Amino acid sequence: MVTIPEYYEGKNVLITGATGFMGKVLLEKLLRSCPGVKAVYVLVRPKAGQAPDARIADMINCKLFDRLREEQPDFAEKIVAVNSDLTQPDLDLSTKDQETLTGCVNMVFHCAATIRFNEPLKDAMQLNVLATQKMVSLAHRMKHLEVFIHVSTAYAHCDRELIEEVVYPPPVDYKKLIDTLEWMDDKLVSLITPKLLGERPNTYTYTKALAEHLVQQECGNLNIAIVRPSIVGASWKEPFPGWIDNFNGPSGIFIAAGKGILRTMRASNSAVADLVPVDVVINTTLAAAWYSGSQRHARPRNMLVYNCTTGGINPFHWGEVEYCINMTFKTNPLEQAFRRPNVNLRSNPFTNQYWTTVSHTLPALLYDGFLMLTGQKPRMMKTITRLHKAMMVLEYFTSHSWVWNTDNVTMLMNQMGAEDKKVFNFDVRQLHWAEYMENYCMGTKKYVLNEELSGLPAARKHLNKLRNIRYTFNTVLVVLIWRIFIARSQMARNIWYFVVSLCFKFLSYFRASSTMRY
Description:
Helix content: 40-55%
Mean pLDDT: 89
Oligomer: single chain
Strand content: 5-15%
Distance between the termini: 84 Å
Low-confidence stretches: none
Number of strands: 13
Radius of gyration: 28 Å
Number of helices: 19
Shape: elongated
């Protein structure tokens, strides 16, 4: 078998979702580790007045591409931005662009999707299902297509406890649902959405399940593979440890905990936190395309599904996540923290609600009151409200565990040569979670919040100040409560005098014994 870089040599690649988190890492890795690739076409829509070319030019100027820029200064010449909108008929491609893509593309990576869990069903269907249908239709017209990779999610079938590497029957017929949503107004759709979702927690997992079935039904003679990552987090090794550029998923929660805003969260300490580094997902994806493409004439035509997860191979639990976050941000604090980092995960909903009120809502109200008194605009309750919405979305995933079969991922690894295993490493048995979590937390500091490490001494000083304020406040509060209690209870007064007398006698004895010693 040819090596992975050899297979990609001279190939024309099409990527959707290249401006997203995973898409950027895929583009960078493909160009850096497969320098022989001929061209990479990326479907990009104009946004905020920026043309596709300008958006790509801005994107490749970020730190993610620094290593690639050093190794291959002219890498940008291989990137071709194509004006496209996946929600429009024919993907909004011009006739010329359609002819170019259908005439030269050898492989497709369909990464584009909406990852908002609470997206209205119509919008989620448009972006996750109908866009996939249009991409499959375009792929059928490609004369030299060798492989089509569809990026799904490991939670597409989260209504099952055991998830095999197969495409399961859909919750509904996607064609009938598409037809139905065309004539329904938004209000009616929102009313029927909970019934349609059934045991699934949101429209994201629901539409991803439908998209998988659509790909299976409409693939025809296309050579297709599906990659299902779980919770995609910061990079493990490539292009450097801890790369992350957004607040999505766990990243926003980590930052809120580091700032001291998040104090309590509903989660099961014993549940598996199936985080998977983004570079592991991308290496798996590139290897899956290599295997399906290079072996398309040598093996039976069947759609391979890869569960790109960590829980069954190298499990890490939410209780361990809590510990790592607290330790990292206490050692390397974020700048201008609201309170000292001390997040606690609670499985009991009533206990969690109590601490949410005490640790989140009340401090936020007091802080906003202080801001109003000093003539500033209140903002903390708005932040807390957004945080609570994010936590409610993630609650389902932090309170449950799943078992994913990963036989195909193991098979794929065994098919690779020694050098490919090094360059395109996705063996998560080698992943050291404590080190990874520290890099992840530091990545949110450096790349999301853009905080310099030179500011750490000042941040630590600020954290010590917060600690002293907390101790002082707690001491004053305890003394006040105790004094009020003593004033009302003779028994409390007797206990208080007894404790004080005992302490005085102990100190006297200690001083006397010290004097006798000398």
